[in-house]
Amino acid sequence: MTATPEKRLVLLSGWGCDARLWQALDKHWPDNLEIMSPDWPGYGERTALDDPASLDALAEAMSDDLPSDAVWVGWSLGGLLAGALLDRLPPPRTLVLLGMGERFPHPEGVSEAALAQFRKAFRRDPVATHAHFMRWQLGGEPSPRNAHRRLRSLLGDEANADTATLAAGLAQLAEIDNTQRLCTPPCPVHRLAGEADPLLAPAVREQADYRLPEAGHCPLISQPARLTRALAAIAEAPERSLAEVALESMP
To answer: CA nearest 79: which of 90, 69, 60, 92?
Structure first.
């Protein structure tokens, strides 16, 4: 009989990407971790919510997928949503925000005006706008072309998500502000960011506990080994300083 893993990580995807994205990390995990990667409602084979913008409905739908004895790892929009669910579900052992701050729009990153333009473009042509975003978010990777090729190999060329869910996700990126929630969080919170993330303002990247070198917004694609080492170290001891984790995550 296989031994029960000592720690659990729940991996939560960002806008426009279903849970297949996390397969990029599969071969890098240590054996003592249990890895869960549930889709958000409306992604993959999962039924969309009647009101995909409702955080209360999202909390109810995800309650079995977000156990309190696990580490929640939210990438991009996944981190923003996980933070918003802290006051709607029993909190996790720790929350990891990967490529996300307390809120998304920032005058020195993706501005409110730029996000409004993106939402307008999505309403006009969801398919083309999603395809543009898949390329745009890879701009900070060491080899954007190779990263895009890898992303397409995992996810294909079409968004495996409900259009209403995608539209609601863009509204959530514009509107959710977790600043107050994370001022006095109910669990430890760690912030990780690619050192060249084009979607984060420089000030937000600087506030990260650990900046992944040679990575942009998608370290899952560009730095899978280094990222899994950092996440595994957090799962083993959530209270540890990420300065120590950073040293252990170096090649």
So the answer is: 92
pLDDT at 238 over 70: no
Domains observed in the chain:
7-244 (3.40.50.1820)
Q: What is the pLDDT of residues 12-31, one digit of tens each?
A: 999 999 999 999 999 999 98
Q: CA–CA distance from 25 to each of 9, 19, 175 (Å)?
A: 12, 12, 30
Task: Quickly state the pLDDT bin for 3 (edges 50, 70, 90).
Answer: very low
The DSSP line for 54-81 is: -HHHHHHHHTTTS-TTSEEEEETHHHHH
How far is 183 from 105, CA to CA, in rounded Å? 18
Query: How open is the CA angle 149-152-155, to the nearest 5 degrees?
Result: 155
Q: CB within 8 A of 70, min separation 6: which ones?
A: 7, 8, 9, 10, 36, 92, 93
Q: What does pTM read for this prediction?
A: 0.93
The rounded distance, in Å, linking the Cα atoms of 17 and 43 is: 8
Terminal Cα distance for the chain, rounded: 33
Mean pLDDT calculated for residue range 185-210: 95
Confidence check: pLDDT of 242 > 70? no
Cα of 21 vs its chain's centroid, Å: 10
Which spans in 137-223 are helix H?
144-155, 163-175, 179-183, 202-206, 219-222
Q: For helices 126-136 and 112-124, give the axis angle rounded to 10 degrees.
A: 140
Q: What does the alpha-carbon distance between residue 18 and residue 188 come to, in Å, rounded to a whole number?
A: 26
Pairwise CA distance, residues 7 & 35, whole Å: 9
